[in-house]
Structures are given as C-alpha cells and as structure tokens.
Amino acid sequence: MKIRYNAPVTLSFALCASLVLLLNQTVFPGLTQSFFLVHARMNPGSVVDYLRLFTHVIGHSNWGHLMGNFSFILLLGPILEEKYGSTSLFIMMAITAVVTGLLNVLFLPTALLGASGIVFMMILLISFTNIRQGEIPLTFILIVVLFLTQEIANSLRQDTVSQFAHIAGGVIGSLFGFLQSHRRRGR
C-alpha cells in the first residue's frame, strides 16, 4: 500500500494554512497580520489589501482556530473534490473567500481571518451530493436549520467569531449546490 495525495486542492490548502501559522508563530511574527487578515477598511490603492480578500482563508489566529476549520475541511473537501473536480472546488473556494472578504469590508467594522466561510460553504454544498431532479434534499434543509440558525443566534453574542462569514459561506455553498445540480441536469 502507498499513500496517495488524493485531494490536491484540499490537502494543499491545509498544508499552506499550517505552514503560514507555523511561520507566523516562529520565524515571521506578524506574517498573518500583514498578509492574511482582511481589515475593516481597505485602502483602494493597496494591492496587498486586494490580495487579502483571497488569502484571509489561509491565515488563522492559533492552532485551535486552524484545527477547528480544517477538521471539517479535511473531512468534506476530498468528497467535494471527487464529486466536482479539483478545479471547480478551487474556484468555489476562491469565490467564497472573496465574497466573504468583500462583505466583511462593506458591512462590518471588524477584521476577518480564517477559513470558516469555506467550512460553511462545504457543509451546505455537501448536502447536495446526491440531489435528484425536482427534489430538494432533506439533508440540505436540516443543515440549514441546524447550522445557519445556530449562526444567526450566535451572531447576537459579542465575540471574535465572524458568524457573518459562516452565514455568507453557507449561502454561497447553497448557491453552488443548486447551480451544480442544474448544470448536471442540463447535460
């Protein structure tokens, strides 16, 4: 038996995020703040600020934060990557990163860091893996009720967690799920 790099986008994402956190905590303190944190306000002339709209999903504040996100990503990502393909999953992740970053800049006075928007995108998207024409999966409805309702309730608390990114990621994952199911039916 040999070990196979079975989900290149998911595994590369996890390795990259782990490396960034390791570097931030050892040789390059401030790395996360400099390149992987979406600030509440963007400088329109700053290329780095635009880059952060993509890279904030790679940066994490600590190992607990990273493990919380990547336990889901490593569980769901390979299934989604096999179903939709590496390129499609990468595009969905990039769109989710940019949209959650932009929404945060436009509507919230706080910074954004981490891959939780990607996590919730994957959670909702995975509920579409066995969708059939003319049906809405009960798993999708239950996930919406359980996770998004919890996030809406959590958003009423004062903490450092961006429930807004969770909700936005879930909505984006739902849209991807519906779009992918319609695309498959069109073939």
Describe the structure.
This protein has 187 residues and is mainly alpha-helical. The chain has a single domain, classed as Rhomboid-like fold (Up-down Bundle), CATH 1.20.1540. The protein is 68% helix and 0% strand. It is built from 8 helices and no strands. It has helices at 8-25, 31-35, 47-55, 63-84, 86-107, 116-126, 138-154, 163-185. Helix 1 runs antiparallel to helix 4. The protein is globular and about 50 Å long. The model has no long low-confidence stretch (mean pLDDT 90). Keywords: Membrane, Transmembrane, Transmembrane helix. The chain crosses the membrane at residues 64-80, 87-107, 113-131, 138-156, 162-179. It comes from Alkalispirochaeta americana. It is found in: Membrane. Its main location: membrane.
Structural features:
187 residues; mainly alpha; transmembrane; membrane; transmembrane helix; Peptidase_S54_rhomboid_dom
Order of helices and strands: HHHHHHHH
CATH topology, by name, is Rhomboid-like fold
Secondary structural class: mainly alpha
User: pLDDT under 50 segments (min length 5)?
Assistant: none
The profile of the biggest β sheet is: none
CATH architecture: Up-down Bundle
Q: Which range best describes the helical content: under 10%, 10-25%, 25-40%, 40-55%, 55-70% or over 70%?
A: 55-70%
* End-to-end separation: 37 Å
Top CATH class: Mainly Alpha
Number of strands: 0
Cα-atom radius of gyration: 17 Å
Strand residue content: under 5%
Shape: globular
GO cellular component, one term: membrane
Main location: membrane
Organism: Alkalispirochaeta americana
Protein name: Rhomboid family protein
